[in-house]
Amino acid sequence: MRSLLLVALLACGSAPPRVPLVESWPSQVPGDYKSVTWRWTRNASLRGQYQQVLDLYAVFKSPEWRAVHAAKTAEIRQLVGPQRDEAFAAARAAAASDPYEVELLVTTWDRKENDLDRGKRSVWRVVLVDEQGHEIEPLEIVRDKRPTETLRAEYPAFGDFAQAYIARYPRTQALLGPSVHALRLRMSSPRGGVELAWESP
Q: Using the 8-state DSSP alphabet, how is residue 11 labeled?
């Protein structure tokens, strides 16, 4: 069997930035939307002997990301006063109690293998990994069916041939917290696998 090379390609050719792996809501909007989204974006590629098998970008929707996303949404919708406060309150509540979410932007050489929304029948297995090495299976992975223009505005890494998915994971293990130093995502198939990591300062 031909061996597969696992190549982790880091955004911008350098080590990804460290990020606050905490559950707490930021005291203020943590910067501009595009910069914060790139901070929480990780990239890896899987190559076979002759072609690229997979290119994956993943955006972990942390409280910091949700805060800047709420600010962007409020600006676009021109929300002010109580309406703006309500939008932020809803985002904060989601960050505290909803399943963990990761936006997956997936490009595969064989388009038939871009099938994450098929659940257990997918050729891919996508799990989050906590600091102790416990794998957490997704509750669901669904296609993000919003228009291409919307996805590109929301996720700068969204490419021409990518398919967007939303992966939701249960809060069975604490993936965020003051003592958490690293969070990982593994995506694998019979062809091989990649691993992405978010690390705290």
A: G
- Assigned token pair, 44: 């890896």
Least confident of 5-9, 128-132, 168-172: 5-9
Residue whose token pair is 């593994």: 186
Question: How many angstroms separate the CA atoms of 75 and 21, rounded?
Answer: 26
- CA-derived radius of gyration, the chain: 17
Tokens of 83: 């309406």
pLDDT tens readout for residues 43-80: 999 987 767 899 999 999 999 999 999 999 999 999 99
CB hemisphere CA count around 174 (13 angstroms): 10
**DSSP, residue by residue, 108-162:** ESSGGG--GGGGGGSS-EEEEE-TT--EE--SEEEE--S-HHHHHHH-TT--TT-
Per DSSP bridges, beta strands 182-189 and 163-169 are unpaired
56 has which bridge partners? 44, 106
DSSP state letter for 55: E
Spatial CA neighbour of 163 closest among 127, 110, 89: 110
